[in-house]
Design a protein that fits this description.
58% of the residues lie in helices and 9% in strands. The protein is α/β, with parallel strands linked by helices.
């Protein structure tokens, strides 16, 4: 019975586990960055979809996922349409890298166009600032740059190219960590009124507000009932399969009956 008890514990753990999101999309739209941001912000189990062969493979419904987050680029691709048509579990659609679309107004407009084409909501998000966490060391470095009048140019590569050695590496690291838009926001806030009082927590909040991930809270909650029904059905099916294996059948079938009434 030990193996049966362990199998039952594993089924219960899976039923109560954090929300499991499969993040999919065409290579280059920020799938990995968004998955990491979702883990940081919402404490979910977010994993990247199969990107090895491009987004043609992202229509799969991997077993155990609660929902799929489809990440669009600047617009809707044909592979996005084909993937969305194949999904058989709840789907949330976002327009990724909103901080690279020429401003929030432009990003919202592009997401609106995508939503009109798809006939479903599309949420513009910037995962890099949205999942950022500014620490004290970074803030001290940024404060020094802001005081010296350092800014991120229109071509972000110039922010790195003007420096050499350790300074160049520091600039490249922060540009990679916060993105051009996030870095610009931090430098502007530190150079502006109240910049001297800006601490790491406030700097983190500034970036996360710009990332727009809070838009996803309401639609994720709205998908909750569908996710629970899917988990309950999977739990009952796996209980039945376990009962069919033989050991502890009567006890497992009783659990399956109770699960069906919950």
């Amino acid at each position: 019975m030990g193996d049966v008890d362990e199998a039952l514990r594993e089924l219960h753990r899976a039923r109560r586990a954090p929300l499991r999101i499969r993040v999919c999309g065409h290579p280059g739209v920020g799938v990995r960055t968004l998955a990491a941001a979702l883990v940081t912000r919402f404490r979910v189990d977010a994993r990247c979809g199969p990107l090895r062969d491009g987004c043609e493979q992202s229509g799969e419904d991997p077993a155990g996922d609660d929902l799929i987050c489809q990440v669009l680029g600047a617009g809707v691709r044909g592979c996005d349409l084909r993937a969305l048509a194949r999904y058989r579990i709840p789907v949330l659609v976002v327009a990724g890298r909103a901080d690279q679309r020429g401003g929030q107004v432009r990003a919202a407009a592009l997401a609106g166009q995508a939503a009109a084409r798809l006939g479903r909501p599309v949420y513009p998000v910037a995962a890099l600032p949205g999942g950022a966490r500014v620490d004290g060391d970074d803030l001290a470095l940024l404060r020094g740059w802001a005081g010296a009048g350092v800014r991120v140019p229109a071509l972000p590569a110039g922010f790195v190219d003007v420096a050499a050695g350790a300074e160049r590496r520091r600039r490249a690291g922060l540009l990679h960590r916060y993105g051009p838009d996030g870095l610009s926001r931090l430098l502007a806030a530190l150079a502006g009124p109240g910049g001297a009082e800006l601490d790491a927590a406030a700097a983190t909040g500034l970036l996360r507000a710009a990332g727009g991930l809070e838009q996803l809270v309401a639609p994720l909650h709205a998908l909750g009932p569908a996710v629970r029904r899917r988990r309950d059905a999977r739990f009952a099916a796996e209980l039945s399969a376990l009962a069919a294996a033989g050991p502890g059948r009567d006890r497992i079938e009783l659990l399956a009956q109770r699960a069906g009434r919950e």
